[in-house]
Give the backbone structure.
Amino acid sequence: MYDYIIKRGTIVDGSGADSYVADLGIKDGKIVCIGDLKEADASGTVIDAEGKVVCPGFINMHSHGDQTLFLFPRGESTVKQGITTCYCGNCGATPAPMDKVWVRKFWEYDAWDLVDPYVEDANTILPREKVAPVIEAYFNTKIDWNTMGEYMKRLEDQGISYNYIPNVGHGDIRAQVLGGDNRKPDETELTEMKRYLEQALSDGVWGMTTGMDYAPGSYADLDEISSLVSMVKDAGGIYTTHWKNRGADEKTRIAGLQEGFEVARRTGVRLHMNHLSDLYYTTPLGEGETPQSRAEKTLQFIDAAEAEGIDFIFDVIPNTDAGFEYIPYLAGYFMPWIRISGSVERFIENLKKRDFRKWLKDWILSGRGGLINPGKFPEWSKWMHILSSSNATYAGKRICDIFDRKQDQDCVDTVLRLLHEDPMMRTRVIRFHPEIVKSLLHHKLALVGIDAFNFDGFGTFGNKKDFPDILVHPNTYYSMVNYILHFGHERVEDTIRQITGKCADWLRLQDRGYLKEGYWADINIIDFDRLATNENYINPVQYPQGICCTFVNGTPVVRDGAHTEARPGKIIRRK
């Protein structure tokens, strides 16, 4: 007898082998039979999957869902796109350790001005006792853990809707010992950091992650990182790094990539490189250069490291400017000035003043305007697209397309002119060439990662603000479907393998990632004829369509596009 029988589905088993039509039986959370099954043998539910693909649940290899799972244990943004397992704790940021110091993870962004009011540069490393009460009140929750083990116990008590693979963040470990100090730890301090790491490893995390572009991770040198990663290697764990990829040019980004490889050379650890992207993206394609040849310039460093014998993989975000948030309004790029003005309305009034606009331009040209930065990003005006405006002729155009020599000295002037005309115009950014992203994803060492939080609805961004300076990135909701539709392989079997069995092989999961008898029943039923991302930058909380049913550990968490309210997910601790 079976709890569920999935009838007549096209089985894509995660191995890359050719698909075939069969029934699949589920009992006690496991796949117990694949073949020609009789409906009479189901004591529960029979699901007709004829004409649909039945495949393993997707594995997201770059998730920040661990940080918000305690707030959103249903995980709608995750499971509704077919993800059943998340590799978490990336970029050096995890929910613990947090017994002394709180390092802002960014999901708390909307509340941070209440924690420590600021105009332009937030202090993101503060005593726990200062931060926790504000966060608890703002999000109506309780912060009742110090260690990774305690946090995982909290989640198990709540129940979660998908499987969580935990890591521990170097940034949080360092902060408990050194706070926000930008210096090397002494011997005693390094020993204390190792104590925190040992605690997390004993709690079952899979390894340690670093965020080399963010304080306090950016303060660490190779000796510090390698010393800690050696402990991870000895425990049989993985070192995952957000390498230094925010540099002003390709030389600094290449150096950051090589720094990640150097840690692996020193320690012999298995290495996971976060969100590989075009190392040369800040310069336009040269004469005779193609997206493929540009991608090869980046991948030469990957191939050289593989030839050297380094054991590693890398994840790629299947999007042209992905992440967990975006700035929805043109005025949002000027938040320090809105704060100084006192309100958006007052900022708009100030824009009428000639000297105020001059101050804004000087501020941008100093390199403090984020994306609007001609010094760091020469192509910025080609990346920024207008989605909607009170002037309908602007919709769909880039800033560079609206540049007018009669009115503007440069594209910064264009922005200031548009800001004066309509500061509430909606914008988005397209930074990376889609064919370069696709080429990176098709490398044999590439896996797929979304680099987003775990949310229901808008999550923690913009809910209590009349003018949200950031909103949740649509990538949060549709990215796996976007990969399948726009960045996948010629054969659907190979496309599915990259987000299922291939991930399980790297993680050495013995009972997930494949449709095999005896494996946990993490399963998707997909209608490829209806599959769509529903990507929307005006109203970003749009779930994809075509993911008909998602099982986690043998229990449906999504049926006909709706969450079933089930929470059968497991925390997969390192063995």
